[in-house]
Amino acid sequence: NAGVTQTPKFQVLKTGQSMTLQCAQDMNHNSMYWYRQDPGMGLRLIYYSASEGTTDKGEVPNGYNVSRLNKREFSLRLESAAPSQTSVYFCASTTGQASDTQYFGPGTRLTVL
Amino acid sequence: GESVGLHLPTLSVQEGDNSIINCAYSNSASDYFIWYKQESGKGPQFIIDIRSNMDKRQGQRVTVLLNKTVKHLSLQIAATQPGDSAVYFCAEPAPSGTYKYIFGTGTRLKVLA
């Protein structure tokens, strides 16, 4: 099992460009998440999907959209990138049951110039 | 531990010594806790978890202690090795039904040769 995979690993954008970060998990998990992590700071939740067909905002959703394409895949889209969105983005998944571990992907390092 | 802005608390430990990393949590109703290890440039990696009906749980070279009275978790790493150098943070599921998790900002462990 690959666990949680993310593409791309690195990306550089110019202000105003758009892009989609891809995430997939092969653990048959119900819930998936997108976080951003800035230097020296903790993880901040952007959006999550408790189950296939649902998505909800986290604490920092502005400037982002998500799509739960199917049970395996959860994508994050930046419609018009801004320098403030320079960050490392992590996707995570969990079974969705109470008291269960979240598993993380390797991250996408995004720089917006 | 708490972190302010870019300054993660740092624990420096001599190779071969034991390390103790602490975490305070706020929700007395929390019943599940997770420790993650995050190496530079990588995603958070699950280390060990503990449920609230336990005070102690041991893994390979790691032990987690839970003190519910003072809402405190600790991660003990025995015979610390250079490969243990990373940021360690605790996590707990947010209040029931939200599917979210609460993450500590983390402690940086530096292993001195």
Percentage of residues in strands of chain B: over 45%
Global Rg of chain B: 14 Å
Helix content of chain A: under 10%
- With helices defined by DSSP (H or I, 4 residues minimum), what is the helix count of chain B? 0
- Biggest sheet of chain A, open or closed, and with what strands and sense? 7 strands, mixed
The parts of chain A where pLDDT drops under 50 for at least 5 residues are none
Which sequence of SSEs, written as H and E, runs from N to C of chain A?
EEEEEEEEEEE
The tally of helices of chain A reads 0
Most extensive protein-chain contact, per-chain counts: A-B, 24 and 28 residues
Overall pLDDT score of chain A: 94
Would you tell me the structural class of the helices and strands of chain B? Answer: mainly beta
Please give the largest β-sheet of chain B: 6 strands, mixed
Shape of chain B: globular
Q: Assembly type of the shown chains?
A: heterodimer
Gap between N and C termini of chain A, in Å?
36 Å
Number of strands of chain A: 11
Low confidence ranges of chain B: 1-6
Report on this model:
The model of chain A has no long low-confidence stretch (mean pLDDT 94). In chain A, strands 2, 4, 5, 6, 9, 10 and 11 form a 7-stranded mixed β-sheet that branches. In chain A, a hairpin with a 5-residue loop joins strand 7 and strand 8. In chain A, 0% of the residues lie in helices and 50% in strands. Chain A has 113 residues and is an all-beta fold. Chain A starts with a strand and ends with a strand. Chain B has 113 residues and is mostly beta strands. Chain B has no helices and 10 strands. The interface between A and B is medium-sized, with 24 and 28 residues.
